[in-house]
């Protein structure tokens, strides 16, 4: 283990010390080994009363279950705050390779701790943070994890039965910054599982725990949204292809796809997060357009000179963007066979209007993109952006999902 001072001291008080064994494993174990994390596990029964080391009693006023006693918890929290408690210091479960140069070291990335801290008015910022997992607590969020990753000393009180006498936390506020916290709208047997969840969420954000800082900066909830889906090799697996854009080599396109995939996933699974991001004005104009628009394809048969296509395409992109139709791709292909929209009709109409056969060939125009317009309005916008008098027939249709 490294000899430098740990960046975080985590003390856990519980009647089941063995429940905290997972803290010794994987990245948390490695953080302990590197001296980034120090974990002490305290058995509450060391302060228990009587021959059976009792820690609970029936609730005042009657009711089911038992409540954990203040005259047990109070001394325990006093001792942990003062550093006088006998404790089992956890060591890493297995030795890790620490000679391999990690991403941030290789690229000389400076540590980027999060800025926010959880200190309220009237609180001593140097006091330990006391976390109390309870279904009655405030929801635990990624923002909490980020703020708590700046702490130097966190103590967790693991309740059992019907909980801990509330006076314990009122008293503890003299020595701690007390936070009652819930990891979800459900009830567990005790606080140990919640402690493991919180410990992982917080510790992984401490600089040096993960080898690549960006891997947690891009996490779900880090920017208020869910993370985009992830893919790796092979390119196609069991008939399912990875998104083509990920092979483009265009970092700008890849980042744009990831942002849009994040927005689409969040809108589908957690629309409340999108609503919150809108209310906080955290979405860009591009984000808002993507969420409010839908994917469409416009297919037209047109009489158009392919030699003018480059100029027409530029005009299409510019004019449609003004109208609220953003193009992803636009192609013009000269037809060499039967057309879906009766090309002879276009030619006949042209000849009737101009008194001579059409000089321009029949082409298929296909535009894919996103729009806030109705399908009919999108088609009109495309036609309006074509050279004046262009003969056309076709329509716009919506695609089934974000792509």
Tell me what you see in this structure.
- With 403 residues, the protein is α/β, with parallel strands linked by helices.
- It has 13 helices and 14 strands.
- It has helices at residues 26-34, 70-82, 103-106, 142-148, 167-172, 192-203, 214-217, 251-269, 271-279, 285-292, 309-323, 343-354, 375-385, and strands at 8-14, 37-43, 56-57, 67-68, 88-89, 129-139, 153-157, 177-182, 236-237, 240-241, 294-303, 325-334, 362-371, 392-398.
- Strands 5-2-1-7-6-8 form a 6-stranded mixed beta sheet, sandwiched between helices. The chain has a 4-stranded antiparallel beta sheet with strand order 12-13-11-14. A two-stranded antiparallel sheet has the order 3-4.
- α4 (142-148) packs across α6 (192-203), α8 (251-269) packs across α9 and α11 packs across α13 (375-385).
- It is elongated and about 110 Å long.
- It starts with 7 loop residues before the first strand and ends in a 5-residue tail after the last strand.
- Residues 1-5 have low confidence and may be disordered.
